[in-house]
Give the backbone structure.
Amino acid sequence: NKRSCSIIRNVMIKKFCYIDTETTGLDPTKNGIHEIAGAIVIDGKQKEEFEFKISPFPIDEIEDKALEIAKVTRDQIMSYEEPLETHNRLIEILGRYVDKFDKTDKFWFVAYNSPFDKEFMRSWFEKCGDKYFGSWFRLDICVMRVAIHRLLLKNVQLDNYKLSSVAQHLGIAEPDDERWHSSKFDIYVTREILKRVSV
Protein backbone atom coordinates (compact mmCIF):
# COMPACT_ATOMS: atom_id res chain seq x y z
CA ASN A 1 0.00 0.00 0.00
CA LYS A 2 0.96 3.66 -0.20
CA ARG A 3 2.07 3.86 3.45
CA SER A 4 4.37 0.83 3.09
CA CYS A 5 5.93 2.31 -0.04
CA SER A 6 6.49 5.60 1.79
CA ILE A 7 8.20 3.82 4.69
CA ILE A 8 10.51 1.86 2.38
CA ARG A 9 11.38 4.97 0.36
CA ASN A 10 12.15 7.13 3.39
CA VAL A 11 14.22 4.49 5.18
CA MET A 12 16.34 3.95 2.06
CA ILE A 13 17.04 7.67 1.61
CA LYS A 14 19.88 8.67 3.95
CA LYS A 15 19.14 12.13 5.30
CA PHE A 16 21.97 13.37 7.49
CA CYS A 17 21.92 16.66 9.37
CA TYR A 18 25.37 17.45 10.75
CA ILE A 19 25.13 19.79 13.74
CA ASP A 20 27.64 21.61 15.90
CA THR A 21 26.79 23.97 18.73
CA GLU A 22 28.82 26.48 20.70
CA THR A 23 27.41 26.90 24.19
CA THR A 24 27.66 29.08 27.29
CA GLY A 25 28.52 26.09 29.48
CA LEU A 26 28.19 22.33 29.72
CA ASP A 27 24.69 21.93 31.18
CA PRO A 28 21.89 21.99 28.56
CA THR A 29 19.28 22.95 31.14
CA LYS A 30 21.01 25.94 32.76
CA ASN A 31 23.36 27.00 29.94
CA GLY A 32 22.47 28.09 26.43
CA ILE A 33 23.57 28.10 22.80
CA HIS A 34 25.25 31.04 21.10
CA GLU A 35 26.11 29.40 17.77
CA ILE A 36 24.64 26.62 15.62
CA ALA A 37 26.08 25.39 12.35
CA GLY A 38 24.81 22.58 10.20
CA ALA A 39 25.09 20.77 6.90
CA ILE A 40 22.29 18.81 5.29
CA VAL A 41 23.55 15.83 3.30
CA ILE A 42 21.15 13.53 1.48
CA ASP A 43 22.43 10.29 -0.02
CA GLY A 44 25.99 11.63 0.17
CA LYS A 45 25.24 14.95 -1.55
CA GLN A 46 25.33 18.22 0.34
CA LYS A 47 22.11 20.15 -0.10
CA GLU A 48 22.55 23.10 2.22
CA GLU A 49 24.72 24.63 4.92
CA PHE A 50 23.64 26.99 7.66
CA GLU A 51 25.27 28.98 10.42
CA PHE A 52 23.50 31.01 13.10
CA LYS A 53 24.89 33.22 15.83
CA ILE A 54 22.29 33.44 18.58
CA SER A 55 21.89 35.48 21.73
CA PRO A 56 21.26 33.33 24.81
CA PHE A 57 17.94 33.41 26.62
CA PRO A 58 17.79 35.65 29.72
CA ILE A 59 17.58 32.51 31.90
CA ASP A 60 20.77 31.01 30.40
CA GLU A 61 23.86 31.11 32.59
CA ILE A 62 27.00 32.27 30.83
CA GLU A 63 30.30 30.84 32.04
CA ASP A 64 33.55 32.71 31.47
CA LYS A 65 35.43 29.50 30.60
CA ALA A 66 32.98 28.73 27.79
CA LEU A 67 33.41 32.24 26.35
CA GLU A 68 37.18 31.92 26.54
CA ILE A 69 37.14 28.61 24.64
CA ALA A 70 34.88 30.05 21.93
CA LYS A 71 36.90 33.29 21.78
CA VAL A 72 33.86 35.52 22.20
CA THR A 73 32.73 38.09 24.76
CA ARG A 74 29.44 38.56 26.59
CA ASP A 75 28.79 41.74 24.65
CA GLN A 76 29.30 39.89 21.38
CA ILE A 77 26.91 37.04 22.06
CA MET A 78 24.28 39.33 23.54
CA SER A 79 24.28 41.28 20.26
CA TYR A 80 23.46 38.18 18.21
CA GLU A 81 20.06 37.36 16.69
CA GLU A 82 17.14 36.65 19.02
CA PRO A 83 16.68 32.86 19.50
CA LEU A 84 13.05 32.79 18.35
CA GLU A 85 14.06 34.39 15.04
CA THR A 86 16.80 31.79 14.61
CA HIS A 87 14.39 28.99 15.50
CA ASN A 88 11.98 30.11 12.77
CA ARG A 89 14.77 30.22 10.19
CA LEU A 90 16.09 26.81 11.21
CA ILE A 91 12.65 25.20 11.03
CA GLU A 92 12.18 26.64 7.56
CA ILE A 93 15.41 24.99 6.41
CA LEU A 94 14.65 21.62 8.00
CA GLY A 95 11.17 21.66 6.47
CA ARG A 96 12.61 21.78 2.96
CA TYR A 97 13.94 18.24 3.35
CA VAL A 98 11.82 16.48 5.98
CA ASP A 99 8.09 16.18 6.57
CA LYS A 100 7.78 16.59 10.33
CA PHE A 101 4.37 14.88 10.26
CA ASP A 102 5.71 11.72 8.59
CA LYS A 103 7.16 9.34 11.20
CA THR A 104 9.33 7.65 8.57
CA ASP A 105 10.83 10.86 7.20
CA LYS A 106 13.49 12.17 9.60
CA PHE A 107 17.11 13.32 9.66
CA TRP A 108 19.85 11.33 11.30
CA PHE A 109 21.38 13.75 13.81
CA VAL A 110 25.14 13.59 13.19
CA ALA A 111 27.69 15.27 15.44
CA TYR A 112 31.00 14.76 17.19
CA ASN A 113 30.02 13.66 20.69
CA SER A 114 26.44 13.81 19.50
CA PRO A 115 24.73 13.39 22.90
CA PHE A 116 26.11 16.80 23.94
CA ASP A 117 24.87 18.69 20.88
CA LYS A 118 21.59 16.81 20.68
CA GLU A 119 20.64 17.51 24.29
CA PHE A 120 21.55 21.19 23.91
CA MET A 121 19.46 21.41 20.74
CA ARG A 122 16.50 19.64 22.37
CA SER A 123 16.67 21.99 25.37
CA TRP A 124 17.01 25.02 23.08
CA PHE A 125 13.92 23.96 21.11
CA GLU A 126 11.96 23.69 24.38
CA LYS A 127 13.16 27.13 25.49
CA CYS A 128 11.84 28.39 22.14
CA GLY A 129 8.43 26.94 23.08
CA ASP A 130 8.79 24.02 20.66
CA LYS A 131 8.39 20.52 22.13
CA TYR A 132 8.66 18.79 18.76
CA PHE A 133 12.42 18.49 18.27
CA GLY A 134 11.89 14.76 17.68
CA SER A 135 9.63 15.53 14.72
CA TRP A 136 12.74 16.36 12.71
CA PHE A 137 15.31 13.82 13.89
CA ARG A 138 15.57 10.09 14.42
CA LEU A 139 18.52 8.56 16.29
CA ASP A 140 21.87 10.32 16.49
CA ILE A 141 25.15 9.17 15.00
CA CYS A 142 28.14 9.96 17.22
CA VAL A 143 31.17 10.47 15.00
CA MET A 144 33.48 10.35 18.03
CA ARG A 145 32.31 6.83 18.90
CA VAL A 146 32.56 5.72 15.28
CA ALA A 147 36.12 7.10 15.11
CA ILE A 148 37.18 5.39 18.35
CA HIS A 149 35.81 2.06 17.14
CA ARG A 150 37.44 2.26 13.71
CA LEU A 151 40.80 3.43 15.08
CA LEU A 152 40.89 0.65 17.67
CA LEU A 153 40.18 -1.89 14.92
CA LYS A 154 43.36 -0.58 13.27
CA ASN A 155 45.27 -0.89 16.56
CA VAL A 156 45.48 2.90 16.90
CA GLN A 157 45.02 4.26 20.41
CA LEU A 158 45.25 7.99 21.11
CA ASP A 159 45.83 9.78 24.41
CA ASN A 160 42.37 11.30 24.03
CA TYR A 161 39.65 11.43 21.40
CA LYS A 162 38.86 15.13 21.34
CA LEU A 163 37.86 16.44 17.94
CA SER A 164 41.19 18.23 17.52
CA SER A 165 43.23 15.14 18.53
CA VAL A 166 41.50 12.81 16.07
CA ALA A 167 41.71 15.48 13.36
CA GLN A 168 45.45 15.82 13.94
CA HIS A 169 45.98 12.07 13.79
CA LEU A 170 44.10 11.87 10.48
CA GLY A 171 45.95 14.87 9.00
CA ILE A 172 42.87 17.09 8.80
CA ALA A 173 43.82 19.98 11.09
CA GLU A 174 46.33 20.88 13.77
CA PRO A 175 45.31 21.50 17.41
CA ASP A 176 46.56 25.12 17.25
CA ASP A 177 44.41 25.98 14.22
CA GLU A 178 42.66 29.27 15.01
CA ARG A 179 39.42 28.06 13.44
CA TRP A 180 38.61 25.61 16.24
CA HIS A 181 35.34 26.28 18.08
CA SER A 182 33.83 27.94 15.07
CA SER A 183 30.79 25.71 14.58
CA LYS A 184 31.18 25.75 10.80
CA PHE A 185 34.80 24.59 10.99
CA ASP A 186 34.01 21.93 13.57
CA ILE A 187 31.35 20.52 11.25
CA TYR A 188 33.81 20.43 8.35
CA VAL A 189 36.27 18.47 10.50
CA THR A 190 33.54 16.14 11.77
CA ARG A 191 32.49 15.31 8.23
CA GLU A 192 36.11 14.70 7.16
CA ILE A 193 36.69 12.38 10.11
CA LEU A 194 33.60 10.33 9.28
CA LYS A 195 34.71 10.05 5.64
CA ARG A 196 38.21 8.91 6.52
CA VAL A 197 37.39 6.40 9.23
CA SER A 198 34.64 4.89 7.06
CA VAL A 199 37.10 3.88 4.34
